[in-house]
Specification:
The structure is a single chain. The chain has about 190 residues and is an alpha+beta fold. It has one domain: Fimbrial-type adhesion domain (Immunoglobulin-like). A four-stranded antiparallel beta sheet has the order 1-2-8-6. A hairpin with a 2-residue loop joins β4 and β5. It is elongated and about 100 Å long. About 15% of the residues are buried.
Length: about 190
């Protein structure tokens, strides 16, 4: 065998080896893992997340002429339901309602939008105890049961402005107007 043929054979082996090595190279990749860790002991029932509460009609005559007085009609019930409650570390929950406060009382839910009735707000209360739940204030703690829980509340019309009464006893200026009622509240649940 000549020297030249050995050189070609060595060169062929080197080329063949480099081709084999280049096809055996690994490609780099990446896997991204995502998720969430939270401290929620329950999930909010889908029907509780967005609700519409029709408080019905009320007459001006249904309001005592005292600022802060509730209409003499019954409050309108509504509920917030929780599901899939578990976890022995979270035994209680509080509820905090927020929204546009009334101009004269920041604890009462005020009206939103244009052309809303004047002199009226909405008071939210615990339906079981009757305790007023001021806006932006956590309620007392509700004990969580395993599986599901329902918290019951009432929404009531409340007078924000008194009528002006003349010396003869006649109303000279109404504190409450007539018209539509539109208020929006959000709620936050804190688990402990």
């Amino acid at each position: 065998m000549s020297v030249r043929s050995i050189k070609y054979s060595a060169l062929s082996c080197t080329l063949l080896a480099s081709l084999i090595m280049s096809t055996a190279q690994a490609a780099d990749g990446q896997i991204e893992f995502t998720g969430v860790v939270n401290d929620n002991a329950c999930t909010i029932n889908s029907q509780s997340v967005t609700q519409s509460v029709d408080m019905g009609q009320v007459r001006i005559a249904d309001f005592p002429n005292t600022v802060g007085a509730l209409a003499t009609t019954d409050g309108t019930p509504f509920s917030i339901s929780l599901e899939n409650c578990s976890g022995p570390t979270m035994r209680n929950a509080t509820v905090k309602f927020s929204g546009q406060p009334a101009a004269t009382d920041a604890t009462i839910l005020g009206m939103v939008g244009s052309n809303q009735v004047a002199g009226v707000g909405i008071q939210i209360a615990d339906a079981v105890t009757g305790t007023k739940l001021p806006l932006n204030t956590e309620s007392t703690a509700y004990t969580l049961r395993p599986a599901s829980n329902t918290f019951d509340f009432t929404a009531s019309y409340v007078r924000l402005v008194a009528d002006t009464v003349g010396t003869d006893g006649d109303v000279t200026a109404r504190g409450i107007g007539t018209g539509r009622i539109n208020a929006v509240a959000t709620f936050d649940i804190t688990y402990r």
